[in-house]
Amino acid sequence: MYQGQCLCGSVQFKLHQKITDIVMCHCSECRKVQGTAFATNGNVRNENFEFISGENTLTEFKENANKSRFFCKTCGSPVMAKLKNNPDHTRIRLGTITNDIIEPIEKHIFTGSKANWDNICDNVTQHKEW
Question: Whole-angstrom Cα distance, residue 112 to residue 15?
């Protein structure tokens, strides 16, 4: 259903399902990881996530006891995250998806800590925290 890749194309993958739980996260951690105002992420079940190439090109950053983030070693693109408290899913960075995403964004989260220069300009539900 979906294909994705990092900036340099070393890491390529397919998603064999719709993307669920799509959120725009405005927390300070996501801003640092993405280098911009927010991160847009969604879930896929692990069995519906398939690497085409470059799985060995990923490097893991263990952010805390629950969360690991994975980046391309070559270009630095953030590709995905894994949460120990959600072990059956992979959290995909939607900016890596190369075809049109049909599922809607469900909500903005951590808007209470969004960047002061960030203006949310849509009618999607907002939550000050998770």
Answer: 32
